[in-house]
Amino acid sequence: MTDLKGKVAIITGAASGIGLAGVETFVAAGAQVIAGDVQDEKGKALETRFGPDKVRFTHCDVTDMGQLEALMQSAVDAFGGLDILWNNAGHGGTPTSVEELDLDGFDATMNLLLKQVFAGTKFAIPHMKARGKGSVINTSSISAVCAGYAPITYSVAKKGVAHFSKLAAAELAKYQIRVNAILPGFIATSIFGASLGLSREVADQMAEMVSQAGGSMQPIGRVGRGSDIAEMAAFLASDAASFITGGEFLVDGGMTVGPPHSWNEQVASPLLDALGISPEQAEQMRLAMAAQS
């Protein structure tokens, strides 16, 4: 298991989904965690569950710069310092296309998904410098590298998160502060329902439906779990990853290895489909050619 003993971490968006899995994983690895979120009831339940010696909940709207800066200070006040920052908070953003772009929604999406990553990192730097080193982890997305997985504004913001991580890694290496990005694939969380405007309760229920029905979308044969991302984050936060910075880590069940026909023999390739040739017909043609050779 990853060892985070003696380390103090901040995780934003910590009350549900990937962030909640992060709190569970980091605490199990020995870290003390400041859990930042706007979901007060769920956040306070975390503090009760683990105890205030391991987890402290702090209400934090990451688009409010004052609250975000105070969140960084809360790690020092509660546990004596800050070693790890996981900028994880987010939602699906505005769903509109370029042609129908909602400019206010664009600004809100960028503030939540990109600006707060810049700002959270900025506010963490002096605390990490005081510790002599640190690890910043940023949640990006496979939509940063492929079209078709999320709305365009969300995808562009997540691309920015990934590239920011590389640039910040270069700038902060002199302080022994490492910066890496995780690009999750199809993870069963409430973000899908929340992006549709559903209530938190209904979105949580939808996450369970996604978990049961989405396995066929990736070669690995199952939907991702929050713990899959949390385990990668814990590794990147640990001293075992001390030689790793500026990386973009796909954790996607193989979703981006290629189109479905590259890993699912039941799916026709686009070329065969365009020619009107079914997978069965293609196999018959292959066998006929093999018999002639």
Write the layout of secondary structure elements.
Layout: E1 8-12, H1 17-28, E2 32-37, H2 40-50, E3 55-59, H3 65-79, E4 84-87, H4 103-131, E5 134-139, H5 152-172, E6 177-184, H6 191-195, H7 200-213, H8 226-237, E7 248-251, H9 270-275, H10 279-292
Parallel strand pairs: 1-2, 1-4, 2-3, 4-5, 5-6, 6-7
Protein name: 2,5-dichloro-2,5-cyclohexadiene-1,4-diol dehydrogenase
Keywords: Lipid metabolism, NAD, Oxidoreductase, Steroid metabolism
GO molecular function, one term: oxidoreductase activity
Brief digest:
The chain is of the alpha/beta class. 47% of the residues lie in helices and 13% in strands. Keywords: Lipid metabolism, NAD, Oxidoreductase, Steroid metabolism.
Q: How does this model look, in words?
A:
- It contains ten helices and seven strands.
- The chain has 293 residues and is an alpha/beta fold.
- The chain has two domains: 8-257, 3-Layer(aba) Sandwich (Rossmann fold), CATH 3.40.50.720; 259-293, no CATH class.
- Strands 3-2-1-4-5-6-7 form a seven-stranded parallel sheet, sandwiched between helices.
- Helix 1 packs across helix 8, helix 3 packs parallel to helix 4 (103-131) and helix 4 runs parallel beside helix 5.
- The chain is elongated, with a radius of gyration of 21 Å.
- The termini are far apart.
- One of its GO terms (biological process) is steroid metabolic process.
